[in-house]
């Protein structure tokens, strides 16, 4: 079994839980609250900006020019391409996307997720660690969307069905390339190193679950005390 296949197999139980959680179920049935939708858009706007920065940190670690080109293309996709999925959600709440994301949010779960990726980008020389921390993002979206498109509970009359249609195929090429890089970069790793890289992947899959739940619950920083209740 390829290393990338092993990672996906071990991550599947987490993805199953993501699918059953209220955010994805709300999207599936077309009744996700508008507040949760807008919170997700605001949090994801902050997240994707950092995701693009982490792609840039990977560029010096790539040995093949084709891999560098791939990373540059992914940065461009984050800036331009993925806006289509966000526009679908903005249409669902009946507001303009750019207006929604004028309000910035930086919730605890998103903060933890982003720092997890930055840590692996800065602390580990082998790019496999960073890719393992990043790869669950497109993979989770791909799996969830593909499952939703086969689900009889999908509300096809809701505009949210278009969100699933977008991710049903849009992540395919990225997932394939991430898999290839993961297998290539771990070819000569020790079992101990592979286990560390696997943990990066599984931790990010958990972070994906927390990100969706964070949006559904409109998570905030709670510092306690008289002025921070």
From TrEMBL:
<dbReference type="GO" id="GO:0005829">
    <property type="term" value="C:cytosol"/>
</dbReference>
<dbReference type="Pfam" id="PF03070">
    <property type="entry name" value="TENA_THI-4"/>
</dbReference>
<feature type="domain" description="Thiaminase-2/PQQC">
    <location>
        <begin position="9"/>
        <end position="217"/>
    </location>
</feature>
<dbReference type="InterPro" id="IPR027574">
    <property type="entry name" value="Thiaminase_II"/>
</dbReference>
<keyword id="KW-0784">Thiamine biosynthesis</keyword>
<dbReference type="GO" id="GO:0009229">
    <property type="term" value="P:thiamine diphosphate biosynthetic process"/>
</dbReference>
<dbReference type="InterPro" id="IPR016084">
    <property type="entry name" value="Haem_Oase-like_multi-hlx"/>
</dbReference>
<comment type="subunit">
    <text>Homotetramer.</text>
</comment>
<dbReference type="GO" id="GO:0050334">
    <property type="term" value="F:thiaminase activity"/>
</dbReference>
<comment type="pathway">
    <text>Cofactor biosynthesis; thiamine diphosphate biosynthesis.</text>
</comment>
<dbReference type="InterPro" id="IPR050967">
    <property type="entry name" value="Thiamine_Salvage_TenA"/>
</dbReference>
<comment type="similarity">
    <text>Belongs to the TenA family.</text>
</comment>
<protein>
    <recommendedName>
        <fullName>Aminopyrimidine aminohydrolase</fullName>
        <ecNumber>3.5.99.2</ecNumber>
    </recommendedName>
</protein>
<dbReference type="GO" id="GO:0009228">
    <property type="term" value="P:thiamine biosynthetic process"/>
</dbReference>
<dbReference type="InterPro" id="IPR004305">
    <property type="entry name" value="Thiaminase-2/PQQC"/>
</dbReference>
<comment type="function">
    <text>Catalyzes an amino-pyrimidine hydrolysis reaction at the C5' of the pyrimidine moiety of thiamine compounds, a reaction that is part of a thiamine salvage pathway. Thus, catalyzes the conversion of 4-amino-5-aminomethyl-2-methylpyrimidine to 4-amino-5-hydroxymethyl-2-methylpyrimidine (HMP). Is also able to catalyze the hydrolytic cleavage of thiamine; however, this thiaminase activity may not be physiologically relevant. Therefore, is probably involved in the regeneration of the thiamine pyrimidine from thiamine degraded products present in the environment, rather than in thiamine degradation.</text>
</comment>
<keyword id="KW-0378">Hydrolase</keyword>
């Amino acid at each position: 079994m390829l290393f990338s296949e092993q990672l996906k197999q071990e991550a599947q139980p987490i993805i199953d839980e993501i699918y059953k959680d209220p955010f994805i179920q709300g999207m599936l049935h077309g009744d996700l609250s508008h507040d949760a939708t807008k919170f997700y858009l605001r949090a994801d706007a902050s997240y994707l900006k950092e995701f693009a920065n982490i792609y840039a940190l990977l560029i010096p670690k790539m040995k093949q020019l084709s891999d560098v080109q791939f990373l540059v293309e992914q940065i461009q996709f984050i800036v331009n391409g993925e806006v289509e999925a966000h526009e679908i959600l903005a249409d669902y709440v009946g507001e303009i996307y750019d207006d929604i994301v004028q309000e910035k949010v930086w919730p605890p779960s998103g903060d933890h997720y982003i720092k997890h990726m930055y840590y692996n980008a800065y602390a580990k020389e082998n790019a496999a660690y960073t890719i393992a921390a990043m790869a669950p993002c497109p993979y989770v979206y791909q799996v969830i969307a593909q499952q939703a498109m086969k689900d009889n509970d999908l509300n096809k009359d809701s505009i949210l069905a278009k969100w699933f249609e977008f991710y049903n195929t849009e992540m395919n090429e990225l997932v394939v390339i991430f898999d290839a890089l993961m297998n290539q970069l771990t070819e000569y790793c020790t079992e101990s190193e592979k286990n560390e890289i696997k943990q990066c992947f599984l931790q990010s899959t958990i972070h994906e679950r927390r990100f969706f739940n964070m949006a559904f619950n409109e998570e905030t920083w709670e510092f306690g005390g008289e002025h921070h209740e």
